Amino acid sequence: MSALDHLPILVVLIPLLTAVICPLFQNGRTAWKLALGAAWSSFAIACMLLHQVLNSGTVRYQLGGWEPPWGIEYRIDVLGGFVLLIVTSIAALVLSYARRSVEDEIRPGRISFFYAAFLLAFSGLAGITVTGDAFNLFVFLEISSLSSYALISAGRDRRSLNAAFQYLIMGSIGATFILIGIGFLYMMTGTLNMDDLAVRLPEVADTRTVRAGFAFLTVGFGLKLALFPLHLWLPNAYAYAPSVVTAFLAATATKVAVYALLRFLLGIFGVGFSLMSMPFDMILIGLGLAGILSASLVAVFQQNVKRMLAYSSVAQIGYIALGIGLASHTGISAAVMHLFNHALMKGALFMSLGAVAYRVGAMHISDFAGLGRRMPFTMAAIAIAGLSLIGIPGTAGFISKWFLVLGTLEQGWWPLAVLILLGSFLALIYVGRILEAAYFGTPKENSAVREAPLSMLIPIWILVIANVYFGLNTELTVGLATQATTDLFEALP
Fold it and tell me: Hey, which residues does 75 pair with through a beta bridge?
């Protein structure tokens, strides 16, 4: 076998092994360089894997030479390759941006351990996207979750400890539900291989055990992806975590949880069972709409800007849930598109807020007064990413919301389309509050605030430009999302 044959394991192994090495160096900058190299290496591997999938079909890798379903198999299809690209690209850009922010927010003696925890979270999320084994997915989910608890608690604000503890409790409940659900499926089928589960489940789909397993899995993943009303851990976790952690988790963690939910709903149970036989479609539509409207309303009245955008993330997850609930090709394609587009938006926004925190040291909306003149490039980045969040034409956010509206109109549900537009109007209000303060507010007297360093601005603007580029050139995002959805529907038994 050539080195290229081992790419599926290397994309996980490189950050995992680097996480072990980082704490050996007391110098935080050395640890940062190691983490940065690991992240960019994984991104390069993810690009090669996606290219391989698009040209040759699904990539399979057997661990230890054991053939599935007895051995663990890594399996990367279009959807998995697409989500892996999201995770690795965001990790690479966030780590490129991280050095100054981490040195400012993390105690010097803990920086090496911080990067080790970051790489563990990254490798866990990458592992979820490549594994074809249900229990292995749970293991990677726990690796990413446990390291995320440590990352959130690493901030100097004491409230980060409470936020991490709240996330720990809710995350542990979600993980327990997922493990019980996987156990029920194993009890009825005798296999943990996802492809094998998809073949064997239809024979026992009418049993109470399978239905109970489905219920445990959906609630467990609902907690992990912060689906309304299971989102209560998210606002504090995002608001009080270090800026680098917020940017990375907001752009990746919930997206990977959505991917795992899609993998079980469509890849294993099938759309007929998940979204028709079990009427989970109406539940997702109802909870999605509730999340869009309620979280957006709460965001409008927030004074802490990080907390405002945290509630915005709950609303954006509502759009994704709504798309899945439509149970149509267009709706699910819109949901998959929004995974990518939301990662671009929130990555740019939270990294920009980190730049503000680095210069201003506060996140209250009054502290943004006059920043449009003092930090023009940072605030321009927030403005453009904010327009994408609203869904203004010419930005990435518009594309996924357009397909979501098309999905509702295809089924004649025009009131849903109106509510989607209402959610965008509410986003306009809270993004407008930030921009009003920045461009029309009076700056504080004797303020010596200046523009963020170039090392922070370059990664931010890469994401900002991506928001515009993928709003104008939709060949990659629409093509991959459509192909991934087609493959999921065609793979059903």
Answer: 60
Q: How far apart are CA 4 and CA 448, in angstroms?
A: 52
Is there a contact between 253 and 125 (Cβ–Cβ < 8 Å)? yes
Residues paired with 74 in a beta bridge:
61, 131
> For position 493, what pLDDT does the model report?
47
Q: Is 492 left (phi over 0), alpha (psi -120 to 50) or beta?
A: beta
Mapping DSSP onto H, E and C, the string for 131-143 reads ECEHHHHHHHHHH
Q: Are the CB atoms for 453 and 100 separated by under 8 Å? A: yes
- Report the alpha-carbon distance of residue 51 to residue 45 in Å, rounded: 10
Entry pTM:
0.90
Give the containing element (helix H, strand E) for 387: helix 376-390
Matching residue, tokens 């956010």: 397
Higher pLDDT, 174 or 28: 174
Q: How far apart are the C-alpha atoms of 120 and 22, rounded to whole Å?
A: 11
The total number of residues shown for the chain amounts to: 493
Is the pLDDT at 239 greater than 80? The verdict is yes
Could you identify the residue written with the tokens 């979501």?
Answer: 404
| Helix (H/G/I), strand (E/B), else coil: 488 | helix
